[in-house]
Amino acid sequence: MLRLADSWIWDSWYAYDGGLHHVFYLRASRGLGDPDRRHRHPSVGHAVSADLRDWTVLPDALTVSDFPAFDDWTTWTGSVVRDDAGRWRMFYTGTTRQDGGDIQRVGVATSTDLLVWDKHPPHTVLEADPRWYEKHGQSAWPEEAWRDPFVFRGDDGQWHMYVTARAGHGDWRSGGVVGHCTSTDLEQWHVQPPLTEPGAGFGHLEVVQAEVVDGTPTLIFSCASAQLDDDALRRYGTGGVFSVTGPSIHGPFDISTARLFPDTSLYAGRLVRHDGRWHLMAFRDLVDGRFVGELADPVPVTSTPDAGLLPAVDRSGAPR
C-alpha cells in the first residue's frame, strides 16, 4: 500500500526497469479539504518498489507548465513506454486555463532514467477528431474527453494508443468509447475510429488498458456510478473497475458484455505483471462513503472469456 500523509493518491501507471517497478500517480494536497477539488490541483508523483507493496517515494515526475500551454492547468493520467532507442516516453493528459479546462489533450515527455522528465514542444500530440469523436459543446456532457492514454506495441508492429473518449453520435449519457490512434515511430500519430461502440450505458471508459491475461485478451476500464446511465446502474448496482474480453488486444470488444470487478472500492485499475503473475493495481476510492485516496496492495488476478477479470484463487479456492 502507498499512502501519503499530506496528499491523496488516485490514478496510477507503471514502468519496470532494473528490477524495480516505477509507479507514477496523481496526487494532490489533503489541505484542499474537499477531495473533489483534487482534480484541478494535481502533480504526477513517483515511487519505486521491488514487490508492488512497499514503496519508496521519489521526487515528483511532472507538474503543470507555465501559461500558456496545453497543460498549464493540469497534468493527468498517462502511460510510459520505452522506444526503440531506449528512451522512456510518458504520454499524459493535459488541460489549459485558456479554454476553462474543458478540453483534454494528450502530450508527451521523455526521460533517460525515469527520474527526470522533459516535456517536448509543441507539447500537444493529439486531440479528439470530430470525424468520429464528440467535441466540447456537442452534447450536455461537460467536457471534451480525450485522456488517459495507454500506449503499447501491437501484434502488427505498430504503436497503438487507446484513450478515454466519447462518440460523436448516439445518446450522450452512454457515449463512452475507447478512442484509438496508431503510429510507426511514437512521433507522428494518426487518429482512427473508436475501438468500441457507444450505447452500453457508460458515459466514459476511464483509464483503459488491454493485456493478454492468462491467455485471454482483456480490456479493463473504470466508470463511477454517476457516469452510468439508468439501465447500466440497475444492471451493475454501482461503478468500479470493469473488464471485457475479446479475440485479441486489438479487439473487437463488446462493451455491453462488461463485467464489474468484485472489489468495488477499487478504481482506475492497472494490470501489472510481477513474479510471473498478473496483478491489479488501483487506488482505494470510496469506503463507507468516504474518499480514501491511497494506492491499494496488488490483487493477483486472472481472466477467462466467460468471467472476465477476477481475483485469482488457488486449487483450494483461497485467494492466491
TrEMBL record:
Keyword Cell membrane: no
Source domain of life: Bacteria
Organism: Nonomuraea guangzhouensis
Entry protein name: Glycosyl hydrolase family 32 N-terminal domain-containing protein
InterPro entries assigned to the protein according to its UniProt record, in alphabetical order: GH32_Enzymes (IPR051214), Glyco_hydro_32_N (IPR013148)
Keywords from the UniProt entry: Glycosidase, Hydrolase
A Pfam family reported for this protein in Swiss-Prot or TrEMBL: Glyco_hydro_32N
Domain named Glycosyl hydrolase family 32 N-terminal: residues: 16-240
